[in-house]
Design brief:
Blueprint lengths: L10 H17 L3 H19 L5 H6 L2 H17 L2 H11 L15 H11 L4 H16 L13 H7 L4 E8 L2 E7 L4 E8 L1 H8 L1 H8 L5 H22 L4 H4 L4 E5 L19 E3 L3 H7 L9 E5 L6 H9 L6 E3 L6 H8 L4 E5 L2 E2 L9 E4 L2 E4 H5 L7 E5 L7 E3 L3 E3 L1 H8 L3 E4 L6 H16 L4 H8 L13 E3 L1
Parallel strand pairs: 1-4, 4-5, 5-16, 6-7, 6-8, 8-12, 12-15
Antiparallel strand pairs: 1-2, 2-3, 9-10, 10-11, 13-14, 15-16
Helix pairs in contact: 1-2, 1-4, 2-4, 4-5, 6-7, 10-11, 14-18, 18-19
Length: 469
């Protein structure tokens, strides 16, 4: 028997007790009781996690709950029960997204540190500033509130004309859960090992295909990418197409699939596709009307067509605001972001794997970081990132994704359109020029993106933009 652990014991001790109780129940053939112990442990973990306001800290501590979440997901896959699989798909993915975010108070010192970091500093001072910024952000008190995951019946009642596809990779298997308003189906897609070779070279292939390669070489590289994408489609999409029909799709993929450019996969091309943190988060964001009345545009330095891109895109909107050249500073962009409903950022971007909230966009006076986003007084509903890499996320503790997209969603954005890979300037120009016309007509972000992406071809660089929510 596992002895009782007092409620004041450290969180890792309390969670270990739940894990041991769960394993004893499973060993005794009582998987339902085991899942009940794991569920109670995760509830305890989330209550503790919600005391922290910083997204960086929330994702950093997720490791404490990861073992329970992973074990619950494995038991759910082994159970064969569709409703159990959906519950644990929701509970296990994006542990930090269940915490209700808070708007951090204004912090002049944090703002000053970020401004100094944007300038010319020594490597020693840069390291010192990064540590100061991170630790100041950690001091923000959390909301203490956690969203309960919705049930499968509630999802089907509220899903409308959409189809939800939850991709679960656990217990060595790939499983898809497809839910619509009239059915919920579990589909076994095969062994996890089948993903290894397909995902291993995906981002490099996408990055190289975006470069201006000479005719035969460019066609060969893009042909290899097309073949890889078709194999991914055959594995992940073809088996579910009959279940989703012609519906718009909301995807909740396991973190191992974070780099997949879903809009390029056969079966999803030309279809509105939204990649959601969870079904619970997606429905929560859909509860209020989307704001798309006022648009703002930013062109950063050294991007060949950035100024043309934002100028052309802005013609779709009445009274839009544009920042280019020396005017596109960090403070000006922060002020603009707080005033508009739709924000388009065309700039060089970089993803920082060691601390993803130091990922950012290059502006006239330096990098505008993920930490700057957290400090905004208000955020747009729709953010368009016409920048390389900023759709990428670092995976923490198996399922926790963090990067600029996550920072925007954590801050309150409803939809973020970005690419997980390098995008050719011309491809971005063409996509966003069409996208703004569709948004201004009132289309939802995923619908507007589907209408704006070019047909798949080996004759042109890919445009792997994805709508995140």
């Amino acid at each position: 028997m596992v002895g009782p652990v007092p409620p004041e014991a450290p969180i890792d001790v309390r969670l270990l007790e739940r894990e041991l109780r769960a394993e004893l129940a499973v060993a005794a053939g009582r998987a339902v009781a085991g899942l009940r112990e794991l569920r109670a442990g995760l509830d305890d973990f989330h209550l503790w996690q919600s005391s922290f306001g910083s997204l960086d800290l929330q994702t950093n501590v997720a490791g404490h709950g990861r073992t329970l979440a992973r074990r619950g997901l494995e038991l759910a896959v082994e159970s064969g029960e569709t409703d159990v699989l959906f519950e644990w798909s929701e509970r296990s993915r994006m542990l930090a997204s269940r915490v209700q975010p808070v708007r951090p108070p204004s912090d002049p010192q944090l703002a000053a540190d970020l401004a100094e970091l944007r300038g010319e500093v020594s490597p020693e001072r840069e390291h010192e500033l990064r540590e100061q910024i991170r630790q100041r952000a950690w001091r923000v008190k959390g909301s203490g509130q956690v969203s309960d995951p919705i049930s499968l019946p509630e999802l089907r009642e509220r899903i409308g004309g959409h189809a939800l596809v939850g991709y679960v990779v656990a217990a060595g298997r790939i499983v898809a859960l497809v839910a619509t308003d009239d059915a919920a189906t579990r589909i076994d897609l095969g062994e996890q090992a089948a993903l290894g070779s397909l995902l291993g070279g995906l981002l490099p292939d996408l990055d190289v295909a975006a470069t201006d390669l000479p005719g035969p070489l460019g066609a060969a590289v893009r042909g290899d990418l097309t073949a890889r994408l078709q194999q991914l489609s055959d594995l992940l999409v073809a088996p579910i197409v009959d279940r989703i029909g012609d519906r718009p799709v909301v995807l909740t993929p396991s973190a191992v699939l974070a780099a997949v450019p879903w809009t390029l996969l056969s079966g999803f091309t030309g279809r509105p596709v939204t990649v959601a943190q969870s079904a619970t988060a997606w429905l929560s964001r859909a509860d209020t009307p989307l704001r798309t009345q006022v648009a703002g545009f930013v062109a950063g330095p050294r991007v060949m067509r950035a100024a043309d891109e934002v100028a052309h895109s802005a013609t779709a909107w009445r009274g839009s605001h544009i920042l280019t050249g020396a005017d596109a500073t960090a403070s000006a962009v922060s002020a603009l972001a707080a005033e508009v409903d739709v924000l388009h950022l065309a700039a060089h971007g970089h993803h920082s794997a060691d601390n993803p909230l130091f990922s950012g966009l290059e502006l006239a006076d330096g990098t505008w970081y993920g930490y700057d986003i957290d400090g905004l007084s208000a955020v747009p509903d729709v953010v368009l990132l016409s920048a390389c890499e900023v759709g990428r996320s670092t995976i923490r503790w198996g399922e926790e994704l963090i990067g600029l997209v996550g920072a925007w969603l954590h801050a309150g954005a409803r939809a973020v359109i970005a690419s997980p890979a390098v995008v050719a300037d011309e491809a971005a120009y063409e996509v966003f020029s069409r996208l703004h016309g569709a948004l201004a007509k009132g289309l939802a972000p995923a619908e507007a993106l589907a209408e704006s992406l070019p047909a798949a071809t080996t004759d042109a660089p890919p445009a792997p933009f994805v709508c995140f929510s």
